Each structure stands twice: as C-alpha cells, then as structure tokens.
Amino acid sequence: MTSPALANTPTPLAPEWLPQHVPLAVQTRDGLVESVHYGSVIATAADGQILLTAGEPLAPFYPRSALKPLQAVAMVRAGLDLPDELLALAAASHSGAASHRDGAGRILKLHGLTPADLENSTDLPYGAREREDWLGGGGQATQLTQNCSGKHAAMAATCVINGWPVQGYLDRAHPLQQLVARTVADLTGEDPQRTTTDGCGTPLFALTLRGMARAFGRLAAAAASGSRSGETEAGAAEAAVGRAMRRHPEMVAGEDRDVTALMRLVPGLLAKDGFEGVQLVGLPDGRALAVKVSDGGDRARMPVTVRVLAALDVDTSPLARLAATPVLGGSRPVGLLQATDFLADPKISHAPKDL
C-alpha cells in the first residue's frame, strides 16, 4: 500500500498507511530491554525468488545512498571508464579522507572539469576522524568533502563523455538522469512508485526491499563471474561496478566503517549502506539481502544484517564485532545491542508464497 502524498508540514498519518515493520534489534541494559528497533528485511535467490522475509518488504521506501551502485552501473553503460578505485568512489558514501577527496578531484581532472562543475550540496567529511582532521587544518564544508562527491564527479564526467550539458545534470529531465531511471528499473525489475530528491540533490526513487535485493544480487554475481551469463553490455557494467567495490571497499566507505569491514571479512560480498537505516548486501552466488530500520537509526543496521547472513548459511564467525555491540555503564559492559530472533517467530517471518 502506498501512503498518500503529504505536505511538508506536520500532518497526522493514519495507522493503516504505516508499514508493518517488526522488532529487528534490541538494546538491553542489565537484563531489561531499553530500546527496540523495528524494520523489515528480505533475502532473495539468484533468480529473484524470495528466500526469507520479516516485516513488510514490499512497502515502498527510499534506498538513499544504497542506490549509488545502480547509478554507477548506469554511468558505465553510458561509457564511463575509470580505474577500479575511482569507479568504487563513484558508488561511495565516503568518509572524506584525503584519498576520497583527491579521487573525486582526479575524476574531474580526467574529464577537463573542476570542482566548480559539481552540483552536490556542501558538507564536512562524514567520518568522525576525517572531520576532526579536516577541521583541525582549518577546513570548511565543501562539495568535495561531502560524502557523495565521487558520484557527482562521475556524473559530470559521464556528461562530458556523451556530449550532454554538465550544467543541470541533476535535473530529472536531463539525459543522464533519464538513463539512471531506466537502469534502476532494469536492475530492480520495478517502476519507481515515487521520485524525490536525495540529500545531495540527486533524483531518488521509491522502491521495495525486494527490488533492491534483486539488483544487488545481480551486481555481486556479475562481479564474481566477470559478467552475467550470456555476456551483454549491461552485464559488463554490473560486473565492473561490483568488481571495483569489492576490490576497493575503503573507497566505498572508509577506514573504521562497518561496510568496509564487512566486505573485507566475507570474500566476494558486496555491501552498501544508506541513510535512514538502509543496508544492501549481495553474495557472489547471486543471493542478496536488504534491510530497512524503520526509525532510521544506523546502529541496528549491521546486527540485523549479520543475523540474516547467518540464516543464509554464510560463515559469520569473522563478524562477531559487527553482530553485537556492548552497552556500557561506568565504562564496563552492562548490556548489549543485538538482533532479535525475528526469523524464528512465525508471526513475524512470512512464507515466500505469501508474497
């Protein structure tokens, strides 16, 4: 069910329009549940069939920055050809380290562009350590330090390659954004239910967890095999983006970021997070999972993801640090943030045939 369009003013929303999310993670303190994070999850097979679900995975949601790898596929289809580390940056929500800032600058320079051609918003580096270092050196919020600058540099470069206007590349009617919309529909198998604007200014589509999982399964499988079976131009683009992200997870996020750690710890795994509690994962055999934490909280995203990976028989023993976080009291552990056993409750987990 799609909720009605709401004005940008406080408006009571009828309960029947709210997604039917379920408890996915809890924080306990000395045996008492202190906080509960609700949300929805799905896992899909290589052919797109549903393997497991919890909550309402067919409710439309905004994948936010988890959409970036799909946008990068569109750009590669349009002729963007970058070294792997820079292509990974094109699909990144980077921390704003020197390598990220310099990488975005390299993409621009390779195509005769400058930071003045960027149309993303300005911001300080996303990573805490990177932000502290930047501010300590007298830095201010810029477009290059904003965590989407790699994607925006790549978008401007794609315009140059195709002879499209660089100015206005974020307009929904621009040839680049029209191509992105077609590519997203192709990879997810869905027509977006709504289009809005992401925080960095890019068009953003309302999709389902099922559609996004299918897309990430395609990218991960293509990267593992070189391309999809029956190699096509589109399959080669999927393989290029997935391969670049897997080879350079530090460019997709950054040091001290859980997405970077996840890709390093599980061979062949492809991962991308997004604001408002979104996590996408693709596996080399084409299976994939998608997580949406309903309150937008970031801390529940990874424990829930590890729980689903375990249900898919992925070896999660290297992921103990990501699966649960100690809750401290007086500098000593007194509780835990961890996933619930949401897949074991028949009232929560749907049978695939129900969808």
Largest sheet: 8 strands, antiparallel
Shape from CA axes? globular
Number of alpha- plus pi-helical segments: 12
Question: Runs with pLDDT <50, length 5+?
Answer: 227-231, 349-355
- Which structural class do the helices and strands define? alpha+beta
Helix content: 25-40%
Estimated share of beta-strand residues: 15-25%
- Helix-strand topology string: EEEHHHHHHEEHHHHEEEHHEE
Give the total of beta strands. 10
Rounded mean pLDDT score? 92
Distance between the termini: 13 Å
Rg value: 20 Å
Please tell me about this protein's structure.
There is one protein chain. The protein has about 350 residues and is α+β, with helices and mostly antiparallel strands. Helix content is about 35%, strand content about 15%. The protein has twelve helices and ten strands. The protein has helices spanning about 70-75, 85-90, 100-110, 130-135, 150-160, 175-190, 210-225, 235-245, 250, 260-265, 300-310, 320-325; strands spanning about 20-30, 30-45, 50-55, 195, 205, 270-275, 280, 290-295, 325-330, 330-340. The strands form two sheets. Strands 1, 2, 3, 6, 7, 8, 9 and 10 form an eight-stranded antiparallel sheet that branches. Strands 4-5 form a two-stranded antiparallel sheet. The protein starts with about 20 loop residues before the first strand and ends in a 16-residue tail after the last strand. Residues about 225-230 and about 350-355 have low confidence and may be disordered.
